[in-house]
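Quick one, T. Sequence first:
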Amino acid sequence: MIRIITDSTNDLDAKTIQEHNIMVLPLYVNFSDASFKDGEDITTPELYELVRKKNELPKTAAIPMQTFVEVFSKLVAEGDEILFTGISKQMSRTYENAVLAAKEVAEDKIFIVDSMNLSTGIGLLVLKACKYRDQGLSAKNIADKLNQDNKRVLSQFAIETMDYLHKGGRCSSVAKLFGTLLKIKPIIAVRDGKMHVAKKPHGKMKVALDYMIEQLREDMPRLDKDVVIVTHSMAFEYNEYIRTEIQKFLGDIPVLSTVAGCVISSHCGQGTIGILYMIREE
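Structure tokens:
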């Protein structure tokens, strides 16, 4: 049996994870006086409530190598092959820990793929892996295909507030003040495994949402038709707006909406929303 494993930053919904028989391993969300397993011990609404109560932004931590060793050893002993893909190796030690664990347990039966992404950018690859598994591909062949597919994922997020980026040391105080004064709602894109600012729309959040919607419209001729995902951190109104607008031109392409988990939310803040999809091979 081929086991598809990912980490909690994949941000797929519980129903999709169960339907596709995906195993999820949690990263950690750490406050000064408490540690939580993302998605197991704490939910996104609970995270924001703790941030308000403690007036403290949590730190996040990778999955330890030993956790991977324990999980991999058990599955290999049961006769399984393993495909793991999780958060970009540029953003977390999780990938490196998975690679080290695979070498220790059974490198010929465990295949680790760098998603070069985060959130449902990972989820898109996980769903591709499940599709290949169900087509009968071997774990190695799935890994080979994902190592090409990861270059076709397009992820972009509109950030409603820069407070979390600022508190987490991810932008300077000057940048925060500049963004606040000019009412910038930055578009963060993931390319080559790293986050960068793709656009700095001014004004209300709708301006940023419309920018992402138009980008998707422009990509329609080369869009992979499996699924388009809208992922948000407690931004249900924005989610409804985007879904309504993109379904006007997506036709019969499925649209999946998901809520970002605690690790992603810890870094981007409440109100963040993204549109994630894959493009076809040229």
